[in-house]
Amino acid sequence: MRNRIFKNILLIFAIGATALSGGCSSLSKAQLEGVATFAQTCDSFSAYPSLLFLEMAKIREESSIWYASSLTSPEKRVAELVEISGFKKSQEKIAKGTDISLKILSDYSSALKSLAHENRVIDPGREIRSAGRAIDSLIISFNSLKLAQPVTSGIISSAARIIGYGAQLNASRARANAITKFIPSGDTLVQEICRSLETLLKDESIKALIDHEQKMLVNNYLSYVGIRGGDINEDRRFCSLLEKSADLDKLRSSTVTSVGSLRRAHGKMAAQIKEGISLFEQLEAIKEFGYEVEKLSKIVRKWQKRG
């Protein structure tokens, strides 16, 4: 499910915009290409926010094991290994929060697909209500982690109940009307989730932690070599981790920029659809997001090649 996060969100809005404008014309080739580009970049983006925290945990683990191996006292060595485990769990908690954020947006996307695609489900009203409840449950889970400013719950489930019970969703016009009710709530959700991710990633403690890991990687390996002596395989591993640690802040900055671009692009699309403006005028926001995610993707591909 994680790999589908955000996919087809733009396609959903494009269909909604066409329906709301009351016209019967299909999307142009250029518009469809813009939709495809957006959906493709969203696929790539889905794992990036949690990657930073998981990679920091891996670098700390390797670095601390070198340090622990340099200790001659059994008690101190075991204490260091226990500390490694605690840090890894704290980073996994943050990564879990970012993944829940993305799952919330994935379920929101599914709810919109139920409205936008006429033949997708037999009972779209029931699916909309179910999605609303699922999103609320995920928001409660996210807030319980206390990683950032709490996200408002109840917005989507309330809108879903109104739509699910109050509209006959078999007619395309009824679905279009339902979309106009659902989009403002959806944009509120997307804005809050993206801002929570931005707040988390921009926090000065994260930057300080990255700087700390870079320094400790060198210091811990010095301790290891001083006690255990040189080893060519360990030297290669150290060089690989040193390159990765140097790129941690670049990964963080690029992820922040991509999240911000998504937030702005989504907000612009939602506003313009509500006003009945054509998709063509939204392409700049789409291109901005695609450009930022492509930059982030290049960083990650380079990162993964290092092993």
Automatic annotation (TrEMBL):
Organism: bioreactor metagenome
Protein name: Lipoprotein
